[in-house]
Amino acid sequence: MKPWIKSAHNYLAHSLGVIPQEINELDWKERLSPKNDKLCQHICAFANLPGGGYLVFGVEDSTSKVLGVTKEFADNVIERLANLCRDGVSPLVSLDHAIEQYADKPLLFIHIKESHIKPVHIAGKTIEDTFIRSGGTTRKASRQEVGGLMLNSKNPVFEELNASTLKNPTEIITMLDFASICKLLKKPVPGNLEEIMYWFTEEKMLNKVDDAGYYITNFGALAAAQDLTNFDGLGRKSIRVIKYEGKTKIAGSKEFPNVKGYAIGFESLIQFVRSLLPGSEIIKHALREDTSIYPEIAIRELVANALIHQDFSVRGSGPMIEIFDERIEISNPGRLLPSKKIDRLIRSTPESRNEVLAQAFRRYNICEERGSGLEKAVTAIELFELPPLKFEETENSFKVILFAPKSFASMSQQERVDACYQHCIIQYYGSGGKTNNSLRKRFGMNERQVSQISRLINEVLELGKIKPKDPESESKKFAMYVPYWA
Questions:
Q1: How far apart are CA 211 and CA 96, in angstroms?
Q2: How confident is the model at residue 238 (pLDDT cuts 50, 70, 90)?
Q3: Burial of 428 (0-12, 13-18, 19+ CB in 10 A)
Q4: How far apart are the first and last CA of the chain?
Q5: Phi and psi (nearest 5°) for 238?
Q6: Model confidence over 179-189: pLDDT tens digits?
């Protein structure tokens, strides 16, 4: 039984009670009106109603007696209403249907779903031709009521828009990898095609259009596409991996195409990137073992951030991972949101342009908890004693640069300042603030180098990026520092 059937049964029982009455949520009919304009008005009214509404066929108009319907009659009603939902109203309205027993008779239940985008009005006309349910009947909305619908309208988001033409279930399962998504969610694979389609729709990967088929959404394609190039407009959104020979783009390079959806291809992407990175040899349990010079968790978080926070309105470009001999540059289309500042990105209040995608990545365990990703990346970088992360914002993109190991003496003064500030943020959320000792350990320096760290702290203090946690304290050796905004 479809999940909305129980609600429809209850509304019908209420409407056909001891004294039959009309209600806003449901309208029962004996036959289908020959007037398309009247039917379109009903569709508009139910689509504008919170929760949507129901049309029930097989109940006599004059006596409210339950008569039942034939399959031929039901098929005709479904086809005609489906056409009107697509062509007679704007924006397009989605409906579902079922033939269910009621009072031992088969009735046709039509569920007209609430539209996220309001007002729904007659196609080819203005929003003045909007209809609503009131007092159990359908009537034209007033200007004030149209305004109220607009206030309750949900702006369409990129992930929920359609990425494909209308597809049937067989076409969809060849284009989307449902098994890999189930694996990420640690759920069993649905048992049949109908269950797969229903599950995909609930996951916001498909938009169902009555019995005509399904549209694959942008989110569905971006998360689970076998090949993103099969979707117009999304082919350039696949992530590019480029390996350069040397420290600049002048030398030779090789590009590795990656056309799978972000979610199903994420693990293999990370492992492939790691295979391209320089490594170092360590001794572990008396055996030699190769390991990357970059922490994997940092790469994961930075790549996930680039995918999640990109601006999909920037056409012709997508996320990119560029690997040089001594650094990795991870970039995505789009500048930072206006509310974000570069020096406040670590542990900032989470905010994303693409919340559907961000929410899915958290459910798929691809990225860390909200707001903690960059913090974990910086913590890992400090454990590997790498230079600080570098953030760059260009006219139409945002880039994070991860550098190979470099000694304190080899770092530029700006790198030392940035490392001090980032360390201060991590320590502030971890132990309340940084000290000379914690910063010295962050750089892998010995006790004889305390004075160098002290000079660095004084410089960062003068730049106004950090401040003493206790301004009254006169101790320098055990002084604790916090970020300037703490």
A1: 8
A2: very high
A3: buried
A4: 55
A5: -70, 150
A6: 999 999 999 98
Alpha-carbon span 403 to 389, nearest angstrom: 7
Taking CA atoms, 71 is separated from 29, 99, 107, in Å, by: 16, 9, 10
> SS3 letters for the chain?
CCCCHHHHHHHHHHHCCCCCCCECCEEEECCCCCCHHHHHHHHHHHHCCCCCEEEEECECCCCCCECCCCHHHHHHHHHHHHHHHHHCEECCCCEEEEEEEECCEEEEEEEECCCCCCCCEECCCCCCCEEEEECCEEEECCHHHHHHHHHCCCCCCHHHCECCCCECHHHHHHHECHHHHHHHHCCCCCCCHHHHHHHHHHCCCEEEECCCEEEEEHHHHHHHECCHHHCCCCHHHCCEEEEECCCCCCCCEEEECCCCCHHHHHHHHHHHHHHHCCEEEEEECCEEEEEECCCHHHHHHHHHHHHHCCCCCCCCCCCEEEECCCEEEEEEECCCCCCCCHHHCCCCCCCCCCHHHHHHHHHCCCCCCCCCHHHHHHHHHHHCCCCCCEEEECCCEEEEEEECCCCCCCCCHHHHHHHHHHHHHHHHHHCCCECHHHHHHHCCCCHHHHHHHHHHHHHHHHCCCEEECCCCCCCCCCCCEEECCC
Half-sphere exposure of 108 (CA within 13 A, CB side): 23
- Residue in the structure block whose two tokens are 């707001």: 371
Are 54 and 27 contacting, i.e. CB atoms less than 8 angstroms apart?
A: yes
List, in sequence order, every residue forming a beta bridge with 256; answer none if it has no partner.
241
Pairing of strands 121-122, 466-468: unpaired
Whole-model pTM: value is: 0.75
Q: What percent of the chain has pLDDT over 90?
A: 69
Name 400's Cβ contacts closer than 8 Å, sequence gap at least 6. 302, 305, 306, 329, 330, 331, 389, 390, 391, 392
Instruction: Give CA–CA dist 305/267, Å, rounded.
Output: 15
Which residues have C-beta within 8 Å of that of residue 72, sequence separation ≥ 6?
none
Q: Give mean pLDDT, residues 253-258.
A: 85
Tokens encoding 458: 């004084």
User: What are 54's strand-pairing partners?
Assistant: 26, 111
Using CA atoms, how far apart are residues 284 and 287, in angstroms rounded to an integer? 5
- What percent of the chain stands above pLDDT 70? 95
Q: How far apart are CA 15 and CA 9, in angstroms?
A: 10
Q: Tokens 């349910």 map to which residue? A: 133
Q: pLDDT at residue 282 above 50?
A: no
